[in-house]
Amino acid sequence: MKHPRYGLGSGKVEEIKEFLQHTKYEQIIVDEHMTPKQIYNLEKTTGVKVVDRERLILDLFYLRSTTSEAKLQIQLAEIKYELPRVRENARLLIGSERPGKGGSGEYIVDVKFRDLKRRMAFILEKLAESKRKRDLYHNQRVEDRMPIVSLVGYTSSGKTTLFNSLTLERNETSENLFTTLSTTTRSLIIGGRKLLLTDTVGFIRRLPTYMIEAFKSTLEESLQADMIILLIDSSESVDEIKVKYYSCLNVLEELKVDKEKIVIVFSKIDKAEFDNVRRAFTELKIVDPVLVSPKSGYGISKLRKSISRKIYPVLKDMDSSIIPEISNKVV
Fold first, then answer.
1. What is the dihedral of CA 156, 158, 164, 167, to 10 degrees?
2. 82 phi/psi in degrees, rounded to 5
3. Which DSSP string corresponds to 214-283?
4. Model confidence pLDDT, tens digit, residues 303-320
């Protein structure tokens, strides 16, 4: 480790300390993973609270969670964040003292550790129950021979806006991170046939494996889709587009998603610079991507045709008369 004491150089720490003396800031956010010891040392030296990247992501998750399953997933991620830190935090805060008469009782850390383990087992049981229900819904869709299309992409790429445009829904949209922390599914008609469209959790680069695992039950919706629309925000710089594109592909690869199902769609084209978009196509070697602006409606017709062409192989042996009528409700 390059800077084991603080996670950053001592010169930078002194610079931060001096800066804080002339401001009213009460918190430092470090865009990196930090150990409890590094956080403790930095807080002690600067006199303000320190939040590392993982803690910040968890806090943002908490702010944006709305469904009971999303809350459970976040709690699971937090426990996985806390578990490896329990012993080190205890050493820093209470030393090696044993509680109880004569110091013969259990270490406080052992009690905390077992409590976290019990909570984890409870949450995993609840999430398994949610997954069983989701599997039942999926099996019903398979029996009804209903194709599924999933919207995936980096957080704030415009998935929910596109979802609303295609389904005429009014789900919450925002430029804030993690507006969607649970999946929503609606039906729509394309090419005279019904299919299901799913809006999923937004991806983020450098997301720790344990966080991906915590949300895996909902991300697995993408695995079950017949077509996956990977949405890219074309209004950003070429470098940002490339970083987020490969970040999304890495997550999909980790989930073992079939690449043949993926269709690349560039969103927010009304805000993009043409030269940047053209350069992004060239550097990413993307041929004939779909360009859309969900807010203005530009490209939506072409996207619907792309969806139709992609899922027709799934539908070619189906008799449309057996496809049931379903309402626009969460399924």
1. -120
2. -80, -35
3. HTHHHHHHHHT-SEEEEEEETTS-HHHHHHHHHHHHHHHHHTT--GGGEEEEEE-GGGS-HHHHHHHHHH
4. 999 898 888 665 444 433
d(CA 120, CA 135): 22
CA distance 201 to 182: 6
Tokens of 271: 């805000």
pLDDT computed for residue 170 by the predictor: 67
Contact 292, 299 (CB under 8 A): yes
Q: Residue 248 corresponds to which tokens in the numbers above?
A: 């999304």
Among residues 238, 224, 234, which one has the least CA distance to residue 196? 224
pTM for the model stands at 0.70
Q: Which domain holds residue 189?
A: 146-322
Give the Cα separation of 87 and 210 in Å (integer).
19
For residue 115, is it within any domain? no
Q: Final residue of a domain: which of 64, 80, 105?
A: 64
Cβ-based neighbours of 124, under 8 Å, separated by 6 or more? 76
Read off the tokens for 168: 């005429």
pLDDT tens figures, 142-151? 666 778 898 9
pLDDT score of 269: 92
Residue 151 in contact with residue 159, Cβ under 8 Å? yes
Check if the beta carbon of residue 99 is closer than 8 Å to that of residue 105: yes
As given in the structure block, the two tokens for residue 95 are 């030393």
Residue that the structure tokens 């459970």 belong to: 72
Query: How many domains does one find in the chain?
Result: 2
Residues in the chain, how many?
331
193-222 pLDDT per residue, tens: 888 888 877 777 777 777 777 676 667 666
Residues 51 and 191 in one domain: no
Residues 6+ positions from 290 with CB-CB distance below 8 Å: 263, 264, 265, 266, 299, 302, 303, 306
The whole-number pLDDT of residue 72 equals 87
Answer yes or no: is pLDDT of 322 > 80: no
